[in-house]
Give the backbone structure.
Amino acid sequence: MYKKLHITIYVSDIKGTFEGIAVYKQMVNRGVVKESHIVNGTFQYNVPQ
């Protein structure tokens, strides 16, 4: 018998070159706030520690 595994992966940083819209979410005062950025070139995001 096999057990199902639940694996959660968190991205701590991302870097790349692409064109489009980058969207990330953050918790502010117990609510989720989405912020989007138009990207054309190099993009880098580091999760605040």
User: Anything to note?
Assistant: DSSP finds no helices and two strands in the chain. The chain has a mean pLDDT of 79. The first strand starts at residue 13 and ends at 28. The chain has one domain: 1-49.
